[in-house]
Amino acid sequence: MSDRGRVRRVTLRDIADKVGVTPSAVSMALAGNHRIGVETRKAVQAAAAELGYVPSSAARALRNQHAGTIALIVPTTATHVFGHSYFMHVLEGTSSVANEHDVQLLVSTNPDNEHGLAAYERVMRSHSADGAILTSAAIDDPTVERLIDSGLPVVMIGSFPYLPSAVAVGVDDRSASRTITEHLITEHGRTRLLHISGTLDHQTGVDRRDGFLDAVRAHGIEADAVIVEGDLSEESGSAAIAALGARIDGIDGLVAANDDMAFGALTTLRAASVSVPGDIAIAGFDDFGLARVTTPSLTTIRVPAEQMARLATARLFQLMEGEDGGWQRHVVDVQLVLRQSCGCLPLDSTASEAGVLPV
């Protein structure tokens, strides 16, 4: 049958958008869960009837299950997850709240980079979890919407402006990136800036790049700015510097989308006898531990990943209990941490940081 002749199935999200609640609240309302208020249940039932919603057997199974487990879904490989500080902070925050509620935590990853559905399918098809935390999903990942529409309570960590019905906690990456870029411009007089971005198929990479662009445009120095896409690894930071070749001589400031790439760039620059921060001032992003132990120490944005994970997990338990009135999108504050790599702290200083400023 052609697409023109196929009738689109009404989803929980369609009902949720009409009533103004989350898909998981719709799922519980249709199941007659008394934790959902009477008026909300009536509104959901009326919208479902009006839209012609037909529940699937899989959705019914999800509503009726009690696995005593929540899932942390990370649609990437286990090697990447357990080798990156961000995920360890998320795991610590998520597991601490799960332990407080005496439930198990299931970590679902992909076996390799070619099987992007595995992390989701393992949770959705097995009915092995009562709710899920999702982090590091790509912008064009269609399975995210399937997960939300399944009726399983879901809280996302990160920014997902293309999913207005999602419950999500994150930071304002764009504003923070602009702040740290403007610090190099206004406090250190750097005007020829390089940005090593994260992968641009993820909203974090896009937002941190756009914050950099906001800063250089506001100060009229966009024409001399350079952007190189990295993949958040130390190696890609090194590769970005190597790829510029002699063009690096025209750069006097560098803003990397995370500390790993900043460190890779720093190592390569020092090997080429480029002075940091003398010739090039450097700033990173995240402050998960590496920035404190590099030489020179890295100026960076401190992202409270463990706090975000705790907030996300606590909110998930609210959704699983059908509690109304919680936040839909929550933005957590970050801090600008000033150290040696931008010139705020002398290279011979024994202090760990020159200052910590709210963003």
Oligomer: single chain
**What is the helix content?**
40-55%
**The CATH architecture of the largest domain:** 3-Layer(aba) Sandwich
- Following the backbone from N to C, one meets helices and strands in this order, namely HHHHEHHEHEHEEHEHEHEHEHEHEEE
Unreliable stretches (pLDDT < 50, length at least 5) are 1-7
Number of strands: 13
Q: Can you identify the CATH superfamily of the largest domain?
A: Response regulator
How far is it from the N-terminal to the C-terminal residue, by CA? 54 Å
Strand order, largest beta sheet: 2-1-3-4-5-11
Overall pLDDT metric: 89
- Rg (CA only): 23 Å
Domain tally = 3
CATH class of the largest domain: Alpha Beta
Strand percentage: 15-25%
Largest sheet: 6 strands, parallel
GO molecular function: DNA-binding transcription factor activity; transcription cis-regulatory region binding
Protein name: LacI family DNA-binding transcriptional regulator
Domain HTH lacI-type: 10-64
Keywords: DNA-binding, Transcription, Transcription regulation
